[in-house]
Amino acid sequence: xxLQMTSLRRIVARVxxxxxxxxxxxxxxxxxxxxxxxxxxxxxDFFKDGASARRLVDGTVSRTGLKIDERTTGHVGGDPxxxxxxTNPITINEAVLARGQERYKIYCSACHGVNGDGKGIVAGxxxxxxxxxxxxxxxxxxQLRAELQKAPDGYYFNVIxxxxxxxxxxxxxxxxxxxxxxxxxxxxxVAYIREMQKNPPAQK
Length: 204
Known about the structure:
Blueprint: H1 2-26, H2 31-34, H3 70-73, H4 94-107, H5 109-112, H6 142-150, H7 153-162, E1 164-165, E2 171-173, H8 183-198
Antiparallel strand pairs: 1-2
Helix pairs in contact: 4-8, 7-8
């Protein structure tokens, strides 16, 4: 009797799985794929100019065609090969510092620590892994603090944007531009780091 009940349960389970699979398959439609649409550069009699593609809206900025200046490059005169700008090109106020703190905690603290002491989650278990990741403190360490405080603001912006490689050419810090896409947010993070360097949070 027990064997019959077990077999019956298996049959019921299989029927239910087949039913769920059938529902999933029936939910798949090709309507979106087969919908009327224009392929790139296709002609169209809907618009007066005969082209299906529309002109870009005035003021549209390409992600790869930003205005080249000190704010977008972090270099003097906007020259990528030039010296780093020494001061933050955006106006620093309480709102900017608050924004920088928020962005820092989201994108930077996992490695560099909430307090900038290099004690983020990556500095724990991941530092023991094959990559031996050891995120640097942004201050507290005397020799490091002196070097980082001497570094111009443009240097920080450059590292946030493009990352930093070690002597072996491997990324010691990965580029964050794809995550911190707003340029002013990167400068806000720089401003917040500078503020932490001036007034270091208490170590834990």
